[in-house]
Amino acid sequence: MQTLVLLALVGLGAQLVDGSLGMAYGVTSTTLLLAIGTNPAAASATVHLAEIGTTLASGASHWRFGNVDWRVVARIGVPGAIGAFAGATFLSWLSTDLAKPVMSVLLLALGVYVLSRFTFRGLRTDKIGQPLRRRFLAPLGLVGGFLDATGGGGWGPVGTPAILASGRLEPRKVIGSIDTSEFFVAVAASLGFLVGLGTAGIDPMWATALLLGGLVAAPVAAWLVRLVPPRVLGSAVGGVIVLTNSRTLLATVDLAPAWTTVVLAAVVVLWAVAVAWSVRAHRREQSATVARTTTQDAHSVGG
């Protein structure tokens, strides 16, 4: 019972982050399932099964708040589904001993990317309104879908920063479109795991707990996307992913406990510095925006 409550809380927290940032539900949930001993393929299958419901609810909520660009959803969702099915089938064929470190490496890499991307670069918005082309979205969907299934998460960490970096779609619509298109990825990945695994190792109660937590959070997250600073949240989430998967990888190597503690402590310190940097950067951006607005208003009055 305690495990189910924990999973529901994780599902709630992960969906709050995913719905307001466009990433991290799968990575966060899969990381927890691996930490409590679930094998990689079953962990990813369980999370994607729960995501069928959470992404549907999240997409509906984002649509209600006007956060979805349906052209982007169509152009990235279908290739994403193809990549996810291929990734799920590939992961199902790997042995558990090989799959666990492979997945942890992928999750760690995604965590480092999320942490560094939002800590040092923030968001780009200078090209908003220019069209996103299919030749950009289709390969992005294929790669994102494959990594999502094999790494237990990756659709958001790959898709959201890439589209944000293009600067052609406003952040809330990037997040809403990525969350909505993830429904196709979740369905395709689930089908791939059913083909490769059947129902072996998939706990429907765990998937239900993750789903219920996510359903509660989905409408709240769609509303919060306009309020929460993505830069700070991205740094915080990236740090969680890096810390947890560093611990998993260190457990697979023959390293003295004292050195393990030192490495993890260093990760925590770097994480804290990254979050502090993001907070300061966000405040600087706010101050600069206020200053520009004040100057423009003064010029308007003077004119």
TrEMBL record:
Q: Which one Pfam family would you cite for this protein?
A: TauE
Transmembrane stretches, by residue range? 72-95, 101-120, 183-200, 206-225, 232-250, 256-277
Which keywords annotate this record? Answer: Cell membrane, Membrane, Transmembrane, Transmembrane helix
Localisation:
Cell membrane; Membrane
Q: What is its main location?
A: membrane
The membrane topology term of the UniProt record is:
Multi-pass membrane protein
**What GO CC terms are in its UniProt record?**
plasma membrane
| InterPro entries from the UniProt entry | TM_pro_TauE-like, TSUP/Inactive_protease-like
Which family, according to UniProt?
A: Belongs to the 4-toluene sulfonate uptake permease (TSUP) (TC 2.A.102) family.
Protein name as annotated: Probable membrane transporter protein
